[in-house]
């Protein structure tokens, strides 16, 4: 589902949303916002240039579009195309560079008018830097512009440096770079504080959801926390990145959130389930996906809630994925989930011994479980890494 589209839009607004919508490959909400804003800025700039050209045609007899105008339009068109891809930050850098490049071209061609044009272009460039570029990219941009200004006399032998063409732009760019970097640093600190508060609120909400499910199903109390700890250990051994491990941790915590949509008489039933009741239970991964996918913060953590009942041999549910079609995080979690479930009491059976549970996991290698993950689990078990925490030694 395209979350950027709104229902009941006017044709003009629908067209604007279509022209500025980021590619689905850009998943981070902040990046999607920046890509959309950049596309909107380029479309506005393109429209303004068209208005300027139209006014010249209307009020300047004999006016013809110059090669530099065509080059400018082509430059903006290429930059706009990049905004529709994952390379939108390169498009931002090109857009920022367009204004000083235009000034340098005017200076070198002898059509430079006054420092006011340079000031306007540079102020606009720094505004764009503060919106679209990182602190490091902005510092690099300021350095490149100053070096270009300093080397202009070397590039053009007849070029005569003066206050308007070198000293003024050099000072303006240096001061603008420093002030922009200071403001960006201050902005980043404020955003970090805001992001930290937001993540704390999200974390409390996730813990609350997991706790609410455990209170509803007392027999699985502590299960989410234990499998989250085991899955995280497995993920580190498997070489997953910190970001991937964090998504795995969130997904593990919420792996059974879909059971919130299962009736109590089925969820808490102590007798064997009927085929119809089993079918209802097997809907919980799909329910989890429907519950969590509209939340941008949780989209990267959906693999486990949606896929933790898939099997290596393709006989799992809800989609019947096979082998490496199943996300690695879900394959890691599946072993941890079964281990914890088997070694703790359930309404329909007492806890198994660790030896029996371990033999079951070995037997299911290549059937229910990824053989690589099973071997990883066995290596960690033998190394004692899975039982470092006292809570994990129960059962």
CATH fold naming of the domain at 219-393: Hypothetical protein af1432
> SSE order, as H and E?
HHHHHHHHHHHHHHHH
Distance between the termini: 43 Å
Helix content: 55-70%
> Proportion of β residues?
under 5%
Total of helices = 16
CATH architecture of the domain at 219-393: Orthogonal Bundle
How many whole angstroms does the radius of gyration measure?
A: 30 Å
Tell me, rounded to a whole number, the average pLDDT: 78
Low-pLDDT stretches: 1-7, 388-395
Q: Mind describing the biggest β-sheet?
A: none
The CATH superfamily of the domain at 219-393 appears as: Hypothetical protein af1432
**In CATH, what is the class of the domain at 219-393?**
Mainly Alpha
Secondary structure category: mainly alpha
Shape: elongated
SS elements, strand count: 0
